[in-house]
Known about the structure:
Membrane topology: Multi-pass membrane protein
Function: Putative odorant or sperm cell receptor.
Protein name: Olfactory receptor
Order of helices and strands: EEEHHEHHHEHHHHHH
Number of helices: 11
Keywords: Cell membrane, G-protein coupled receptor, Membrane, Olfaction, Receptor, Sensory transduction, Transducer, Transmembrane, Transmembrane helix
Radius of gyration: 22 Å
Organism: Bos indicus
Amino acid sequence: MTVFNHTGVSHTVFYFVGIPGLEDQHVWISIPFFISYVIALLGNSLLIFIILTKRSLHEPMYLFLCMLSGADLVLSTCTIPQALAIFWFNAREISLDRCITQLFFIHSTFISESGILLVMAFDRYIAICYPLRYTTILTQTLIGKIGVIIFLRSYGTIFPIIFLLKRLTFCKSNIFPTTVCEHIAVAKFSCDDIRVNFWYGFFVLLSTVTLDVVLIFVSYMLILCAVFRIPSRDARHKTLNTCGSHVCVIILFYGPGIFSAFTPRFAHHILPHVHILLASVCILAPTMLNPIIYGIKTKQIRDQVSQVLCQKKI
């Protein structure tokens, strides 16, 4: 479907290819997508339920983890059902408005997760460097304000993208070689000048995710300095162990994204379907594995999960 205006023809409907070059394998590819989505839904929902219902877990670290699980649910639900619809029902069509809505929630939720990981690093810094003042610094009121700031930052920085895309005329193509909509990928279909889109996207990346990574790195440098001042080796190991889950989640969240971003720039021979699958891993892996990592490595959550499951069996 197209509409005409003073600048020519503009597409209002777009079509997804899915995984280019592997269209005949879509049913098989859908299996890990579906399993990952079910695990993400069940794991994150269970984690949110346990943290909200168990007063013993109403501590800053677990409240931030609850926020992270909520963001994981939103991110996985914004992306994986769309991919499954393509794989199972050949539902490749999407309107421009739906596409912009999808990319808005994907980008804003990604920035939210990055912000939550930053405040979780701040939480570990306070817990290790100022243990006696931990509960007086990170009060529930402050945690609530931090949550609002994360929400406003993520949605506030992505909101202008809606207007930057709506002003464009899409006359080049309307075929996405992916399973989801993405800001610059949509903008590239335009015949207009998209430099504003490019530079604003670059600004958002620098002022949010890149800044978060730098601050997380600084937080952990300060944490390591404090830990190595502890005289007891066992105490050092125990203290570092409290950061283990968070470090795993950080690597899982930023690692695939960095690899996916730099691969097409330095490995020009890479096949398109490999890059699309890598981009999918950026969403699938963290949302599925985050609750598993915290469930296995955090004793308090592990005990509460066991208690809930035992109660259901009884």
